[in-house]
Hints:
The protein is an alpha+beta fold. The chain has helices at 6-10, 70-78, and strands at 25-31, 40-54, 57-67. It has one domain (6-78). It is 17% helix and 41% strand.
Amino acid sequence: MNDIDKEEFKSTLKPCPFCGSDDIHVEPKMHWGPINRPMQIISVHIRHWCETSLGSGTLGVTIQVRGRDYESAREGWNKRK
């Protein structure tokens, strides 16, 4: 799943549970293997900067999930209680 279409993957993610935004960033972390092998994914980081206004001030928080691969990152992000 190294050659995944990030936009297609992002379309499978639920929006932010707090603000409803779908401005979500997906960042795979790659590892260089031996010379005769392709790079391999060692983790996938999904994050979103959520800004919410409370009274006169603005409070922001980063929401993030990291998985060992795209599927585990998606499961963690889409998990809602």
